[in-house]
Amino acid sequence: MKLNEVGPDKGVRKRRKRIGRGEGSGRGGTAGRGTKGQNARSGGGIHLGFEGGQMPLHRRVPKRGFTNVFKKRYAILNIKDLSSFQSGDTVDRDVLLKAGLVNKRWAVKLLGAGDISHPLTIRLDKVSQGARKKIESAGGTVEMG
Length: 145
Hints:
The chain is built from three helices and six strands, in the order H-E-E-H-E-E-E-H-E. The chain has a three-stranded parallel β-sheet. It has a three-stranded parallel β-sheet with strand order 2-4-6. It has helices spanning 57-60, 93-99, 129-137; strands spanning 74-78, 90-92, 107-111, 121-124, 126-127, 141-144. It is an alpha/beta fold and 145 residues long. The longest helix is centred in the C-terminal third of the chain and has 9 residues, at 129-137. 11% of the residues are buried. The protein has a domain at 74-144: CATH 3.100.10.10. The chain starts with 56 loop residues before the first helix and ends with a strand.
């Protein structure tokens, strides 16, 4: 047996039908589309959501609400997530990005779930009052902005 003799078993790989290649092929002429009608035309067929001319569901259902595209989104971070940082470290958005703790697109808000035992310098967009008390009681400082 040689490398050029190795291949898939007989009948495993089926050849695709070549349509529209002459009458002798058995799939010439209308190329398997039948005669006339919407589906026989090029670009024919119905689009997704078409309901035969009836008003489609996405147009029948009433539209409600409003999405504010200028809304500020916050990545939530808890004090317990800061345990990996060393005593005296400065924690800001860039440091949290490198550590993989926050999403790069959003501002960061620190919440007070958990405890901290070593002092840290926190520079974030928002810090809750409970988180601020815990950080300052551990000897750390909080800077907004």
